[in-house]
Amino acid sequence: MNKKEIDLHDALKKYFGFNKFKGLQEGVIKSIMEGNDTFVIMPTGGGKSLCYQLPALATEGTAIVVSPLIALMKNQVDAIRGISSEQGIAHVLNSSLNKTEVNIVKSDIENGITKLLYVAPESLIKEEYIEFLKNQKISFVAIDEAHCISEWGHDFRPEYRNLRNIIEKIDDVPIIGLTATATQKVQEDILKTLGMSDAKTFKASFNRPNLFYDVRPKTSNINSDIIRFIRGHQGKSGIIYCLSRKKVEDIAQLLQVNGIKAVPYHAGLDSKTRSKHQDMFLMEDVDVVVATIAFGMGIDKPDVRFVIHHDIPKSLESYYQETGRAGRDGGEGYCLAYYSYKDIEKLEKFLSGKPIAEQEIGNALLQEVVGYAETSMSRRKYLLHYFGEEFDDVNGLGANMDDNVVNPKVKKEAQAELKNLLEVVKETNQKYKSKELVNTLIGKVNALLKSHKTDEKSYFGSGKKETDKFWMALIRQALVAGFIKKEIEQYGVVKITDKGLSYIKKPFSFMMSEDHMYTESDDASISVNTKGTGGGVADEILIKLLKDLQKSVAKKNGVPPYAVFQETSLEDMALKYPINVEELKNIYGVGEGKAAKFGKPFVDLISKYVEENDILRPDDFIVKSTGENSGLKLYIIQNTDRKIPLEDIAKSKGLSFSELIEEMQRIVYSGTKLNIDYCIDDLLDEDQQEEIFDYFMESHSDRIQDALDEFEGDYDEDELRLMRIKFISKVAN
Q1: In angstroms, how far is the first alpha carbon of the chain from the final one?
Q2: What whole-number distance in Å separates Cα of residue 86 and Cα of residue 108?
């Protein structure tokens, strides 16, 4: 062992207290210390930071670390200061510093105290900083989160594109690019933009065998499902990712009201709050952080046990990076994503206002996410293939760790279909994306196919006995199997490989499984693990009993049945089995007033039914509401009491008149009185009001359409809706 190696191991022990390097670390550090441009692709948790921290500490001069996030810098500076007696060993240089603080940083660099200087790219372009750094001893420049350079990366930052020119102005020093996610295209882009064509590249395996991947349909009961999942992982740390700040706030609040220690984290919070919430999570004062993607970059919490994606991310790189925050200590890590094609459509809409090239890139990345969510093959194999890594889905590490492998779909022979697909790719001169290939196979004409006269060819419609879903699934599985590839430069055009060409000549057995179909029906309820007659749909026997009770309670109180509880409320009771008045308040359309007035006989009946039929209640289905509309409810009650015109109430809250009526309906149907006589008296005289009131009293239904039919145009819809609010308020509350 030569002196350099001994020194490196000594330095590792001295600064970090470790006896040996992890994975590729030693090779990377040697490359840096030899003065080579170095490119490191290492998954989250692989120990990337140490790759530039150790050579910076062991080398003369100051290393510049370019990083996109202030939170990340702060985290790392604190860690480095913790291993040295010198406070100035590591500094941040960004917009958060005042003039005095900037001068302290400069002084420490001049005096050779500072070994690591963390800068945001926006700060590095400032002329005064460039001029200052030009005259200092710089050991090397490390560019963390280097995928930010590439338009094909999941977190593109335009200011990263100019880094090469800035570095050249400062000094001719080695450059180290580091990223946790990078497809072949992104890698090429990084190396080209940084002018590092001769860089030594180190690429670690992207396989995280301890992570379990699970994709579930996003249903109307997603909140219940998440709460149930977290309760099943009691006391364990987890992150929930959402795409919007509003959703982050809503989910965090929902978890808090349901007894789960959770905090929100997004860029809209002030830095003090963000820092506080981050520390609470690290110090285990809370179990769950609900966050946008702003959270997690560089956050080193090794024992995150689950990562939930409430919304599907924009790219597989993002997904990989975010799920990679689970199980960094090698222990359990559960990665659960909720998928609905509606979310994909939303993301496509976001892209529609952007430049064409950006749209093309964004849509190509989105389609990969769709492929991952809908695939029925090993999710790990699909994911690793995306990052250019082969995976043995039978014997590979973690091969049995995903929902598709645990619950496999039936496979079918697709030899003839695969041969047909490959021939169509070849015959169409390899110029189409997946969608056009599928249209060619099923014989569906569009403008592009027509312009190339593809619809006139003999192979057009050659696969129409199968569905478009079938062909899309086959394309995905043929990609992973290496018969075809996607030309990413051409935004996803499908090309045939040598393996594909030889398959056409000599086909062999190819077993495929059809992909998951996430249809509208998936937006119904999640089934619940119950005994007896209870299930994931409303209990039909219980509904009948509740309807009978509804009629008898209505008769006793001299009101129509619908005025006791709406049918939707009865169905929700038969799904969730509330056994006390408190739980009843969480049932759809039931508020405190309604629960107090009519609730007792209903919960008594349900309680008896649950006991007699040995039903295991889905406790966590009784999700406490956050009362997100309580502010609006209070506003409406107060302002109707003050007899403010309804149009003015609607206007002041940015509601249309019909939206206000809907809100008022919700209020009275859940058991709270509203006095809107002042408004109705302006519209209808006493006799008219009485006529409509009598109709609702005698009617078996509260449907407005039935009332419109009954009165044959004597009253308009708004008049009838307002009278219905008055009626329910008076007789049912």
Answers
A1: 86
A2: 10
How large is the angle between the packed helices 379-386 and 316-323, nearest 10 degrees? 120
- Same fold yes or no, 3-203 and 630-731: no
> Of all helices (H) and strands (E), which one includes residue 98?
none
CA dist., res. 125 & res. 325, Å (int): 31
Mean pLDDT to the nearest integer, 650-658: 84
**Dist CA 375 CA 537 (whole Å):** 27
Q: How far is CA 600 from CA 161, 545, 583, 597, 603, in A?
A: 67, 15, 11, 8, 5
Look at the block and give the residue holding tokens 């045939």.
496
What's the average model confidence in pLDDT over 638-656?
87
Distances 704 to 173, 252, 678, 695, 724 between C-alpha atoms, Å:
76, 37, 22, 11, 9
Q: Map residue 11 onto helix, strand or coil.
A: helix
3 state DSSP class of 358: helix
pLDDT tens figures, 522-561: 443 333 333 333 334 567 889 899 999 999 998 898 888 8
User: What fold does the segment set 529-621 form as a domain?
Assistant: DNA polymerase; domain 1 (1.10.150)
pLDDT value at position 154? 59
Domain positions in the chain: 3-203, 211-406, 415-509, 529-621, 630-731
Interval 676-712: pLDDT, tens? 999 999 889 998 999 999 998 888 888 888 888 888 8
597: which 2 tokens?
């007035």
Lowest mean pLDDT among 321-335, 508-522, 645-659: 508-522
DSSP 664-711: HHHHHHTT-----HHHHHHHS-HHHHHHHHHHHHH-S---HHHHHHHH
pLDDT over threshold 60, residue 519: no
Which residue, 427, 243, 501, 431, is CA-closest to 350? 243
Q: Which of 685, 683, 679 is nearest to 649 (CA)?
A: 679
What top-level class would CATH report for the domain 211-406?
alpha beta
- Rounded-to-integer distance, Cα 699 and Cα 710, Å: 10
In this predicted structure, what is the pLDDT of residue 533? 33
Instruction: Give all strands of the β-sheet with 116-119 in edge-to-edge order.
Output: 90-93, 116-119, 62-66, 138-143, 175-179, 38-41, 200-203
